[in-house]
Amino acid sequence: MVAAAKTVFVAARLPKNNGVSAWVAMLPPRKGNPPLQGHATADIVILGGGFAGLSAARRISELDPSLTVAVLEAGVIGEAAAGRNSGFIIDLPHDVSSDDYGGDTMTKSREAIEINRTAIRLASSIAAEQGWGRDIFDPCGRYSVAISSAGDRHLIDYARALINLGEKHQLLSQREIAEVTGSRAYTSALFTPGTVMVQPAAYIRGVADCLHDPVHVYERTPAVRLESSGNGWLVKTPEGSISTGRIILANNGHAQSFGFFKSELLHIFTFASMTREFDPGHLAGQRQWAATPALPMGTTVRRIPGEKGDRVLIRSRYTYHPTIEAGESTLRRAGAVHDRKFRARFPGTGDIPMEYRWAGAMAVTWNSVPAFGEIEKGIFAACGCNGVGATKATANGIAAAELMLGHTSRLTEIFARFDAPRRLPPQPFTTIGAKANLAIKEWRAGGE
Ligand SMILES: Cc1cc2nc3c(=O)[nH]c(=O)nc-3n(C[C@H](O)[C@H](O)[C@H](O)COP(=O)(O)OP(=O)(O)OC[C@H]3O[C@@H](n4cnc5c(N)ncnc54)[C@H](O)[C@@H]3O)c2cc1C
How far, in Å, is the centroid of ligand 1 from the Cα of 153? Predict the structure, then answer.
């Protein structure tokens, strides 16, 4: 008898994080869970301990608490993108269109809202169970802020679309948003109440730490090789291995490092800086607020109060890195942009320096659909966060868990209708196209 050929996927690269995220630095050091050592078995192995992976683990434990699950995180929980983002868990789609009030666009917007609110429900249930305060999980809503007439127009169009969707919102004048932010730079704003703001590193650590037996989280445990074995898979890590029936790939862009979605994921990085603590009297306005830009590709700003003073977060710039690594010089250049954006918004506080700067990776598909579904017998993907992973990747993880366990829901229905990710053009055209596209969009966003 001839033995069946093995199917093998080997990780060509592992994640690297540039810069120290303020969110992690502000928390006590994490002892974390020990790496996987020796051989183990689990019903399901999840690769990646970000929004997608931990949400999948949580959903599996809700649907079938008897299943043994091993979450393998390459680094330390909270140190990759899920713990280094700006902390907006956004309920509304970014791209609702007011041009097409009926038809397809409205259906898509409504479905996007359903997806986002499913993710928020999961996050809220964890927050309630853990008794988190507003310092970790704050359902305070978000401001979209304009800094130009193009931004003002966009907010008015967006507000029109929200009326049609039946979504609560409030337009604010320049004076009204200045009272919130202390900045006269913003020309108008739109408040929507459904966004939850989190301290992302505390949130994602908390989600990991509330998983319990028979779900185990292994940190500093990158999966380096997936090998078919009998009816299942053998997952190899630097110090051990684990036999399993099924795998969820929740390692976002690094799915590609194993050869999956080879020509379908664009690796886009974005960057953030956070000031050192300052006397709250140095900046007018409220001590706690969070604002995303009116125009895509603009600048996110957040003010965070603390016992020793307040801090401001600036998130801006997008760059494309096919090697899934941004590098220190890109981070330095983004930092200079952040300093300019900070001064433009808060001219009276120009002497407050940035204390932390960091970069983080996102995986985007050309047609903005997730890289999702059973991609190999027993291997399910919950990748391709498309930028707003606090909601999208969370939903991706929930949907992957449900699909794997044969559970049907509104989420699995909606996910089943997604197209496959569109193939990108061959290199070097993808790189040229991605860089040109980002440059044009950033130029259009101007000062936003
Ligand atoms: C500065 C910044 C600001 C952002 N702001 C926001 C925001 O406010 N709201 C929002 O919704 N989104 C935001 N994002 C995007 C958001 O962080 C991502 O969309 C989200 O983290 C994606 O979640 P994920 O679980 O799919 O992937 P990730 O969070 O990237 O998690 C994947 C995990 O897989 C691990 N991994 C990779 N390879 C392996 C392997 N071989 N074995 C084991 N583990 C592996 C990684 O270490 C990582 O922990 C921001 C991103 C950045 C960088």
Answer: 32
Contacts of 233 (CB under 8 A, 6+ apart): 45, 226, 227, 243, 244, 245, 246, 247, 378, 379
Rounded to the nearest angstrom, the gap between the alpha carbon of residue 401 and the centroid of all alpha carbons in its chain is 18
- Contact between 324 and 267 (Cβ < 8 Å): yes
Atom of ligand 1 nearest to the CA of 55: 25
Q: Which ligand 1 atom lies nearest to the CA of residue 77?
A: 49
CA of 80 to the centre of ligand 1 (A): 6
d(C-alpha 251, C-alpha 13), whole Å: 12
Q: Is 385 in the pocket of ligand 1 (CB under 6 A)?
A: yes
Residues in the chain, overall count:
448
| pLDDT tens track for 209-241 | 999 999 999 999 999 999 999 999 999 999 999
Alpha carbon separation from 416 to 62, 117, 371, 412 (Å, rounded)? 21, 18, 12, 6
Mutate which of 248, 337, 362, 398 for ligand 1 pocket (most atoms within 8 A of beta carbon): 362
* N- to C-terminal Cα separation, the chain: 67
Count CB atoms within 10 A of the CB of residue 406: 8
| C-beta of 123 in contact with ligand 1 (< 6 A) | no
Contacts with 322 (C-beta within 8 Å, 6 or more apart), sequence order: 267, 427, 430, 431
Any idea what the Cα angle at residue 54 is, between residues 53 and 56, rounded to 5°? Answer: 65
List pLDDT tens digits, range 33-75: 999 999 999 999 999 999 999 999 999 999 999 999 999 999 9
| Segment 14-34 mean pLDDT | 94
| pTM greater than 0.85 (yes/no) | yes
Lookup: tokens for 396: 């991706």
Q: Is 186 left (phi over 0), alpha (psi -120 to 50) or beta?
A: beta
Decide: residue 417, CB within 10 A, 0-12 exposed, 13-18 middle, 19+ buried.
exposed
Rounded Cα distance, 63 and 310, in Å: 41
Question: What is the whole-number distance in angstroms between the Cα of residue 92 and the centre of ligand 1?
Answer: 20
Written as six digits, the tokens of 290 are 């969070």
Determine the Cα–Cα distance for residues 233 and 45; give it in Å rounded to an integer.
9
Q: Whose CA is nearest to atom 20 of ligand 1?
A: 389
Closest atom, ligand 1, to C-alpha of 383:
26
Q: What domains appear along the chain, each with residue ranges and CATH number?
A: 8-84+201-265+366-433 (3.50.50.60), 134-197+267-365+438-445 (3.30.9.10)
Q: Is 314 left (phi over 0), alpha (psi -120 to 50) or beta?
A: beta
